[in-house]
Every structure is written in C-alpha cells, then in structure tokens.
Known about the structure:
- The chain is mostly helical.
- It contains ten helices and two strands, in the order ααααββαααααα.
Amino acid sequence: MVTNSVLPSVVKKFRLPEILNASEQSALLSIPNKNAPTGLRNFCMLSLFLNLGLRVNELILLKVKDIDWLSGKLTVREGKGGRDRILWLSENDLEQLHQWRLIRPPGGSYLFCTLAGGRLNDRYVRDMVKRYARRAGIEKDIHPHTLRHTFATDLLRDTKNIRLVQRALGHVSIANTMIYTHIVDDELESSLKSFRNNRLPSRKEG
C-alpha cells in the first residue's frame, strides 16, 4: 500500500491525467522505423519519455556529455526550477541511444538533433508524439506529458514508493506527485469492484 501524509482532499483538487496502458505503450513504440535515422532518433525520444519521465525541454536540451556511456547515468541539467537530477538508463535504452549516437550528425552538442545537426524544437516533438499515437490507433489525446504521467504511474505501481517517484520526476513538493497515488487508488477500486464477479455462482430464488 502506498502511504503518504497528504490529505486526499489535496489530491482531489487535480484532474486525473491521461496515461497509456502497457499495450498502448507497445503500440506507440512499434511505429518508428528504427532502420531510418529519424525513426531511430524518435524511438529513442519516445523511450526516454516513457522510461525516465523527461519533460519536453529536458529532452531536447539533453547533451551527449550528459550521459555516462559506460554506466548509463543520465544527468538532467537545470530541469524545471533550475535543479539538476540523476536518472539511470536501462541497458536496452543505452544500446538504442548508442546506435543513434553513431549515426547522428557530428559537431552539435545536443543529443537529439535534426539531420542537419540543428536543435529540435518542442513543437516538432509534440507533433511527432501525436502523429505516432494516431498511427498506433490510440484514441486518447496524447502529448509528451502523457508519457511522463505514464512513467510516473508505472513507477509507483512497481515500487510503491512515492518519494522515489518524486525524485525521478524532479518535483520539489510531494503534493505534486500525490496525483499518481490517486490514479493507482482508482485502479484498485475498479479492480476490487469487479474482482470475482464473473466467477461467483448466481443466487437461486426459493
């Protein structure tokens, strides 16, 4: 059970964010053609949204030097509020990023760039996420922050540690992170209400 010291009334002030389920995440990641440079780059960006919960600006400002290519340590420099934080890449994400690094245009400092070596703008990234979501058959209104919400919810489900989620997201206040406990609580309520319903014998009259 996720424990917290924030009253439920604080959480209920917020509208619950949209998130992707596991099949929708898989469908989204299946769309980019990783055999093409832009497809591999975009796949890597989607993966970092889903697996590290990066904000758009954090992703497009990420530099090659911000990753320790041996250990997988990734440093988000001057995130929201000007604060740095440390995150860790999975072996698979690190390998995919290494493949992109080998073919990315040389010279520029930003990890994710245009094929001419220029800096990506946030509008392109937002449009890319929406375009891929439509192609994946996802009917929800998807944007990069949806993927950040998805990461946070999945991490909370897996760890049951709201403080860890807070640190991963770079939230100063735990109150901002508590919204994800409410998503998980709602899922629990829905699951329990339907639990065994289809297996209970019908009650006969008489």
